[in-house]
Specification:
The protein is 56% helix and 0% strand. It has 244 residues and is mainly alpha-helical. It folds into two domains: 109 residues, no CATH class; 107 residues, no CATH class. Helix 4 crosses helix 6.
């Protein structure tokens, strides 16, 4: 048993109860803040050096729409690099999203190159079922450069947020939980440390494909939304969910 109707219902019920995917509300009216996506001047400058003459420019008045615009801009730049067969720029984008945007400054350049290689092979010689859990918080960031409507970031906050919701389900004993990712955030780390070590977890090798499977099932329920809406919301709500 992996993702089943109990898991999907639990996550969907959370989003419904929070009115996070109410069609009458714009993304910036949801009960969460996407401020973590707002680029700092140093991040913006580094990105501009990579993408010049193209430059990312979006209003910070709507944090949610800003985050989505950034995802689409990065995808367009990835596609431009692919058309120009510019591996160097793809590698620069990979470094930027992991180190500058993601804050993982100690990631080895060789490791990032390996993550990029996996991203390049996706849908060609491998599928998401072949993506290892080790390094997924970094590699999945690169995958979203390729296509944020098809791939989503899986990191410590997302995994913890999912499990925080699932463990409150009335069907908690019939659910498999998502493997946790090490976190530097105090609240998330404490949640992971205190989580039931005997809980039934999804097989590590199946984690990413099952995560995407869940997001796509949610997309079927909440018409008009993309998987990045769910990814963004889980990330934004993680600390609040895990502090309960």
């Amino acid at each position: 048993m992996t993702i089943n109707e109990y898991s999907v219902d639990a996550i969907a019920s959370y989003f419904s109860n929070e009115k996070l995917f109410d069609q009458s509300l714009s993304v910036d009216q949801w009960s969460c803040d996407f401020k973590d996506w707002i680029l700092k001047p140093r991040q913006q400058d580094k990105l501009t050096k990579i993408t010049s003459p193209q430059q990312f420019n979006a209003s910070i008045n709507n944090h949610g729409q800003y985050a989505i615009s950034l995802k689409i801009f990065l995808q367009n730049e990835w596609e431009r690099a692919e058309k120009e067969n510019n591996h160097g720029n793809k590698l620069k984008l990979a470094h930027w999203i992991i180190k500058d945007w993601g804050g993982v400054i100690r990631n080895n350049p060789v490791t990032i190159e390996n993550h990029l290689s996996i991203a390049d092979q996706l849908d060609r010689t491998i599928t998401t079922k072949d993506v290892p859990l080790m390094g997924i918080a970094s590699s999945s960031k690169i995958f979203t450069l390729k296509d944020p409507k098809k791939y989503a970031i899986y990191d410590a906050r997302v995994a913890a947020a999912l499990n925080a919701i699932l463990k409150e389900s009335k069907h908690a004993t019939k659910i498999k939980y998502f493997p946790h990712i090490a976190s530097r955030n105090k609240v998330i780390k404490e949640f992971i440390d205190n989580f039931d070590k005997n809980a039934d977890f999804i097989e590590r090798s199946k984690t990413y494909s099952e995560y995407l499977n869940l997001l796509n099932k949610l997309k079927e329920i909440f018409k008009g939304y993309e998987i990045y809406h769910f990814e963004m919301t889980l990330f934004a709500k993680a600390v609040d969910l895990c502090a309960l």
